[in-house]
Every structure is written in C-alpha cells, then in structure tokens.
Amino acid sequence: MKLKMLTMFVVTIVFASTLLVGNAEAITPSGVTMISRVTGPTPSGETMPNPNQTHSRYDVGGTDLGIIWDKGGGEYFIAFGDTNNTAGQWNRSNILAVSSDTNLEDGLSFSTMIQSSPGFAKEILPSKKINNDEMTVIPTAGITVGNRHYIHYMSVNHWGDSGRWYTNYSGIAYSDDNGQNWIKHPTTRWNNNKTTWDNKFQMAAFVKNGGFVYMYATPNGRFGDIYLARVPENNMLNIGDYRYWDGNGWVTDQNAAKAVTIGVAGELSVTYNTYFKRFIMTYLNEDRQAIVMRDAPTPIGPWGGEKILVPGNFTGLGQYNAFMHPLSNNSSSLYFIMSTWYPDYNTHLMKVQLNDDMLGDNIISDPGFETQTQTPIMAPWYVEGEGGIDRNLGNAHTGDDNGYVRNGSGWNAIKQRVVVQPYTDYTLKGWVRSSTNNTEGYFGVRVPNGGTVLKENKFGSLSNYTEQTVQFNSGPNSVVELYTGIWANGDTWVQVDDVSLTRDSNLVGHAGFESQTSTSLTSPWYMNGNAGIDRNLGLAHSGLNNGFARYNSGWNAVKQEIFVEPNKTYTLTAWIRTSANNNEGYFGARLLNGGVILNETRFTSLANYTKQTITFNSGNHHSVEIYAGMWANSGDTWIQVDDFSMIKH
What we know:
The structure is a single chain. This protein has three domains: 39-357, Tachylectin-2, Chain A (5 Propeller), CATH 2.115.10; 382-503, Galactose-binding domain-like (Jelly Rolls, Sandwich), CATH 2.60.120.260; 525-648, Jelly Rolls, CATH 2.60.120. The protein is built from one helix and 43 strands. A hairpin with a 2-residue loop joins strand 10 and strand 11 (148-159). The longest helix is centred in the first third of the chain and has 4 residues, at 54-57. The model is unreliable at 1-24 (pLDDT under 50).
C-alpha cells in the first residue's frame, strides 16, 4: 500500500516470558529469518533467492501484501496490492499470482500470474484511481469454497497520515473461472460512514471452520480493534446471512459487534494450525512498530497477549504485514509473506519457528515487560502520571525488566486495556512492591476512560514483591482496563511485574441468566419452540432469574453455542425442574444445526431442582450446542433451568 511508511526505532525481541501461568497450551515465535524475495528485481548487493523475477516476467517492479490461500488442486492464490511497473508508474491497484510450490525452504515460486496480455500482470479488481473518490481497490483476504474463489477487498477513498487511510466500503468479489475474471458483488458490502470512518469491517482475514467462514476484521487504517463475523461457507454472497460476534453470541446487527481482541491492528492474517491446535493471528502493531502474533484455542478466543513476530528494527526495512502460507498450517514452522518499504516497495518470504510456551491463555500482552526497549513505557502498556520501565536494573520479580510509577503527588498508574467476554468471571494477578511511605496503592480493573472500578485491592508499604489477586466479573463490558497505581504523598513509588489475566473455567455465558435483561432469551441464549426468562419471580435455583421452556406441543428448548477445543473432554451440568406431566425431557450437547448428539441424559418429572450432568468429547469440532428441552406430548408442559456449567478436563 502506497504512502504508509513507518517510523522505525530499535526493538530488541524477547520471545518468551518466565511467567508460568498454566499448561503449555500457547505458542511463541522464535528465530525469524528472511528466505527469499517474492516480488520485484534484486537490488544491488542482495544475495537471497529471487525465483519469480516479476519485473521481467510480469512488469511488476514493486507491490505489497501477498495474501495467500489454498485454491484447491494443489495450487495457491497470492493477492497483492498497489503495484508499479518497471518504470515506477503506479498503474495497477492489485494483481494475482498462482503457485504450486510446496518446498518453501528455497523460496516461494509462482507458476504464473493472472495476465491481461503476455508479460503483464492483470489488475483483477478495477478502481477509479481518483483521490477523495476511489483512489484504489485493495484485496485484504481470500478464500476458496468449492470451485468458487472469493476476495475481500476495500475501496480506498483517500490516504491520510502514516498508518491511516479512509475507505468507502469493503466488499466481496468472486471468480468462477479460476481467477481470470472477478465480479464485485453489488450488495455484499460493508459501507463505511464517511463522517466518522468507523465501520468495523473494512479489512479482513478469512478462516474456514466447521461449515462457516469466519471473517476477522478491523476498521480502515492500522489503529482499530479486531472484530469477528461468520457466514455459512456456501452463503458468502448473501450479506443477510452474516452474523456478528457481540461478546457472548451471534447477532444480525453489525453495529452490535464487540472486539475479540484489542488492536492496534493493521494487515490482519488468521489461520488454524492443526499441529498446535491453535488459531494464530498476525498483524502490524504500529504503536509497537512490530509485527505481532496472538494465538487462541477457539475462533472467538480467548486470544493470548501479543508476542513479537518481527521486531521493528529487523534489517531496517519498514515491514508491515505477515500473511501466513497454508503450508504452515500443520507444522511448527510458520512461513509468511512480509511487505517492506525500504529499500524498495516489495514482498519477501519469511520463516519463524513456533514453540510451546507456558503463558497459557494469559490475555495480557507483554506481561513481564520484557519486550520494553526504552525506559519510557511503550505500548501495549501506558502510564498515567509518571512512570516507566526499570530495564535490567535488578528490580524485576522475574526476568530483566519491570514496570514502575514514581512521583511526589497525584495519581500515577501503569495500565493496559484488554478484551473480555461480558458477564464472565476473571482472575487478575500481579506481583507488586512499593516504597515504605506508600499508603494508597491500588491493583485492579475498571471500565476504561475513568469508568467504574470493577474490583481492586488496596495495598500499603510492600518491602518485597507480593502477589496481588483480584477476582471480578466483567459485567456488560467487552473491554476493561487493568492498572497498578498509587496516590503519591511525597516521593512514592511502586514496582509491578508478571501480570496475568485469565477467564473462569466455566464456558457457559450468562450461566445463571442473571444478566438477561428481558423475559425473552437474548444472546448468547436462543431457543427452539417457546422459551424465555423467568425474571425475579421466585422460581430460580439461585439468584433472581432462570430460563424456561413451555408449550403444549413439539420440541421446546433453551440452547447456547459453546466454543470448545477439539478432542477434549467436557462436563456439562445444570439444575432443572419440570411440570408433573413432563415425560420426555433432554439435557445434552450436540453439533450445531441439529447435528450429531455428543451425549445427553433423559429426564421425566422433576418436582424440585435436580442437578443434571453429562460428559462428552468434542471430537474434531470447535463449537457445540448445549440444550435443555422437552417434547410437550401431554399438553401444557414446562421445564425451568438454571446455573449451567461446562468445564474442560
């Protein structure tokens, strides 16, 4: 993408933390290397392979991106962005290559590029090329379903300051002739607001999973959070079939979408790695001046904290994306295409090694401050008042570095914002010590921008590092801010290190129905037949509310989709009571859309709340549907349900 140069500074990469917060279920990158040039001529003095020679074969002197997807038949499509010719003229908004290369150790070779005439790579998606109208059309993601190929693209209205650009809309184009010609679908579009420029679905990454295409997305530019939608894979051109993740479940209103993880994010790529059984996400964090990686056990998360994939000073090239090659998806070696601005605007094949680490599902980025390379604090941490990093001063709890705040007066705090699932329990931990005169130290979590404190610990003088633990419920919030701070009265300081944030083991959202705000089931709960919420009627097993299903015929059930890890064992429980005439109630877990029942238990008349329990294996799936329901065969029949729990073993 033109006109998006980076300001570089030195970043020293640290690939692992000494913080141990769980099993080795997360992954971390190490040993980034550049294997080959992918596009453009070989500059003077460069010795790495350049197998494609795009300048002489396809009149491609410079281009960027390199979005790779499996097109079937042993071939891969690779989509590039704004392109210049060998004379340096910006004459194409996008181009497309085909590759059947399966040995990436010596570089990535093209079989061909889609051409409009021999020796000239074709612009596959036309653009007006008029500033403040449609400056360019740039692909952001690609996927193939059956014999049809899809590209998600953005229509750029104009370029702004570094890392900022403004889009008219994003949309889906498709090809039914093996990529030779592409049609921009007229209604499968996410229109931007040209006053606020804040539509959440302007740049995307695609992942196929479980019969759906998951579309991860950011607003235009590089400074937004990451959102999620999904659509049945055969319905990609039906805009009305897309559903948007609202923090607990799927809704039809894209404006209700909540972030699945915090940005700052640009040029997103997401894949599922079967070797580690983890979803991997890469993007440029412009605030950190680095390409970073997150990983998660399910499509919705929880997404672990950022880990640096390519540091900001990597050969001084001004790099800005990491589009992962599908050949990496069953391997501990991760290959990706990276764009660079210096010394020329082009793309390169990169490789890193992925390893187990012990961070587990810690949501916090840089939890031990080990990737901080300047004494003034850097993203993803922020300081209110006065503070910074003790770098290699022997003050850390573990490792080399720790955060601190120090001042003579006022409120001073180290902070980080993270995405959480609404109405979910979390545990925040960290190690803290402070000056002898400290009387008002606080470790906790709150709503951002000075909002409500959800929970905090108050601490005074701590001569040695002391672990702080705060357990809280996220309430209606999808983003919270954690902090360690002091009210200074004279020269006062606090040091903090090894911070972790993990969610509760119960995977059921709104498990006790207490956060349901009406008598109708709302996300994440849904129903078959007739069902709803008993609110403050004295019918609950605990608390004020419970769910119910009631009707005089047919199948009626309370249901929820739960995201799981494949081939894991889960125990599902709930408390249920019924009308006296119930003779065919069922409590269980199955695949979506009336799929295979993984396990269920049958219950008949239950005069009092009775705990129901099943255990099941998730099989090769990332989501299941839990349910409690009954066949109303004997006239007016009802069940009441409350206090669900689903725990992974």
